[in-house]
Amino acid sequence: MKLAVGFAGMGIMGKAMARNAAKAGHHVAVYNRSPLASGDAEGLEIAATPLELARCRDVLVLMLTGPGAVDAVLWGENGMGPALGPGKTVVNMSTVPPAYCASLAGKLGAAGAVFVDAPVSGSKVPAQQGALVILAGGPRDAVDALEPLFMSMGKKVVYCGEAPKGSMMKMSVNLLLASMMESLCEMLVFGRAGGLTDEAMLQVALGGPLACDLFKVKEQMLLQRKFPAQFPLKHMHKDLRFVTDTATDMRCPAPSAFANLQIFNQAMSKGLGELDFAAVIEALEGMV
After folding, report:
1. For the whole prediction, is pTM greater than 0.90?
2. Of residues 170, 218, 234, 238, which has the active-site annotation?
3. Which of 10, 101, 150, 217 is placed for a possible disulfide with 134 were both Cys, Cβ 3.0 to 4.6 Å?
């Protein structure tokens, strides 16, 4: 079934996701806060405001930078709010804290709209390839109805339970992701101090049971010391703050998340925020 989809947020991820949805035959209109570059929305209808987008589409996908941006699109000037009610489904694919997601579900439910909590696992290249993993939370029937849309953007949909369990899964995944990236970079800095080369260490990491897609994707960045953003470091820094705040609220131990937040703080203070999060190696090198 082809859906009438409004997509708010045409950044690194949203642009690729909206295009893939349109390629699959869904009727996609888009809104972006800043003007779109030529070709970014080729073949797509462009809404001038979030309200206009909500009035012309039934399924409204949010792929934004965080709670502030989501609030602005929903409840700010010319926001979607007045158009939300029965017959509308809001799908938040942005990374937000579970507590915020639960509040959002309550507000939208009170307005009569269906809310689905569906952040993604994956960054720029999987988004372009339509190979994201969708971490879906919300009413099971609503998630099932959205599967054709989700599968146009991803390779797998994992049902996590009622909202905000999709966002809780995203926090859990990014806790692991930060630890993996920091640990690989820490290995390189540590081994180099003992006379090993990055090339040799990466051959070992990628040649045995430690090998994984993440390390393969970041290998050339680390060897060439060039970090074009696939997942900007500033976004991992933000997500680690969400993880540590959530852990504090739940009184749950998350020692690596708190330690990694401090390292990513250092990376932000060094002006690395716009680079890929693999650039955290430069923060570690600055500690030597």
Report:
1. yes
2. 170
3. 150
